[in-house]
Specification:
alpha/beta; binds ligand 26V; Rossmann fold; 33 helices; six-stranded parallel beta sheet
Length: 820
Amino acid sequence: PPGPEHTRTGLSAETLRQAFLDNLFYIQGRFPEIATDDDRYQALSYTVRDRLLHRWVRTIQAYKERDPRTVCYLSAEYLPGPHLANNLLSLGIVDATREALRGLGLDLDAILDHEEEPGLGNGGLGRLAACFMDSLATLEIPAIGYGIRYEYGIFDQKIQDGWQVETSDTWLHYGNPWEVRRPGICYDVRIGGRTEHVTDEHGRLRVHWRHADLFRGVAYDTPVAGYGVETVNLLRLWRAEAAEDFDFTVFNQGDYVGAVMRKVRSETISKVLYPNDEADSGKRLRLLQQYFFVSCSLQDMLRIFATTGRPLAEFHAKFAAQLNDTHPTIAVAELMRLLVDEHGLDWDEAWQATRHTFAYTNHTLLPEALEKWPLPLFADVLPRHLEIVYEINRRFLDDMRLRYPDDPARIARLSIIDETPPKYVRMAHLASVGGHAINGVAALHTRLLGTTVLKDFHDIWPDKFQNKTNGVTPRRFLMLANPGLADLLTEALGDGWTRDLERLRGLEGLADDPAFQDRWRQAKLIRKAALAERLRAGQGNAIDPASLFDIQAKRIHEYKRQHLNLLHVVTLYNRLKHAPDADVPARTVLFGGKAAPGYAMAKLIIKLINAVAEVVNRDPDMRDRLKVVFVPDYNVKVAQSVYPAADLSEQISTAGMEASGTGNMKFSLNGALTIGTLDGANVEIREAVGPDNFFLFGLDADEAVRTRAAGYRPYALYERDPELRAAVDLIAGGHFAHGDAGLFRPLVDHLLGRDDYLLLADYRAYVDCQDRVADAWRDPARWTRMAILNVARMGRFSSDRAIAEYCRDIWNVAPARVDG
Ligand code: 26V
């Protein structure tokens, strides 16, 4: 029989209301009449956190008792987005909470809007890690996410005079109710100095690392609740602090102020997230960050392992550790060091455990993004690890010389050390040698990985290579972001789709149903109106929800080709200027995304978007048929209001450049049609939704390679296509720069001169394809049918499917159910 609910666990509206008031009083020291937005946000968050803690503790107990095989996701970045709404959803208390607050005259959405999200990542890679944490918990897989608790995450973006201006992120300003600091879970991390090789009393060779500096990592834990299950997993982020006893007592007798200054300096390790600007090599602090979080994480895994009482050589039976790109790859050498130097395993035993523990996910083929560390820097920061890397490499290359006795060039290519001065440590090679699996993030990407950057490794270990196409969580990106559509889906299909996205296929039968189509369009229109309202309130942009919302939202990068999109916008503008009465459907072209602060061309592209917007939006000849809007400060929160509002999703990267993309999946899952190239996961999305329901254009990856090899001359294309020439000339002539022909010169020169990303080669196909988009848009029944079929066939792109594949093919882990 249900007894009275406990204030800290009860889920009814009445109990939630009482708990909220309690927290408002006892945590914030406020009563409703004088509470601020922040007080209300904090009080509600603690109310929800209480309910999570209870499940969290039970999950930890269950894992302790059953000692299950556990996934450790090692990632330098996480972009979880706002926590509060997602946790309400996971706990199934959105409606009860709304009711509880209404009883107090408060609006849940206003409180949700107050949350500052943790921007602890750059983009797709960090967001993927967060989707994976959601799916691991929902699938009831024992998992820990390890990373860095950056005090400053990705910068905030402001637009001033059309230019991006970076301001510092302040996500911790009001405190963070979702984390629990664990001062007792902390580890020493040593760096620098030199090594001593000595023979111990048993005649064994031992290595002592006489380090130069010492830091401490302290755990900050955030609960990750599965949806509709009792499981609450752990995201454990490390903050760097000073190792006080060391600094204060041993080395700084009398130098109190100096010791405090050292302490402050220690904290810089986890101070700020690096934006992916340019190659990492040479950035000492970045290498320190990577080693710092990896060392804390592995020491933590060893501590947990010790509680199982199993022998160390079985470490890999307990843990499957995934390297999210090469950023955590120093883990290979660090685990070897811990097992051999600190725990006395012999090399072969340790190597066996290490290789079976790690697997590596590659997220990019861009040469400038492949991590390599200059040898002198590596030696200075991690002298012992360099010795270990050399030993791993020596053994590996000895094997390879047996296999390829007369191929020194191949041996040099395979080597973990790039021997061309100043010499580098190639992290992707270390990850490939030091793990048991290598995966790409979309079928095309995996193929290219095995035939280009890691071809030599594919030749020796074809079975190590796997594809794991990315996925996205339908909880955050459909249920939370698009409640109207989610309700419509549940009404049509029942609620099973939320945990089994393949069930969306049941929509196929409704694609032509006029009544269903009407409701579908209604749901879309509501999200478009909501976004329009947001933009009006924010930047004063007036846009028409009835127009076609054509959206490109992602980091600004030349390979993603926001400027190809702009060439189309300028082409439409020219057409309307020359034929003001042309019958073209109204379009609103929206852009969102941050440029890395050091990436001048990306910043110039932002300026061009805003410059074009300024001219186009004021031109009376456009008569509201063309609007251009830049949505500032694109982050997870903004993304959640953007995806549901899109009619058209721009996925137009140069084929072969985008590893996968995940925004492409989020748009399509929300009923946007895609205009895209055969790049990354677009290829598989198109196959899934059907070629008739996808606007394909442009060169494929092989054609792109051949085009470049054949001596590509963009200028010739410019001369030949009058519409292209007119668009480029308008930009070059200063039409969007108050007559200043110099402003966009670097961009235009690059397009006409080198055009590394083949915009001009794809321009005609893109513009013609956009004309087909406009034709389809004129026929609402046809468009809506295509949109419904897109959603119906997106089930495969759930991160639940991706995680289930990792569990089966790479991690060999199974669910461990936590009972209610
Ligand atoms: C890093 C760098 C560093 C130096 C210069 C330019 C540059 C450009 C990109 C990157 C990012 C590399 C890792 C990354 O975020 N990859 C993204 O991973 C997503 C999840 O797998 C995937 O969907 C995106 O296609 C891929 O770009």
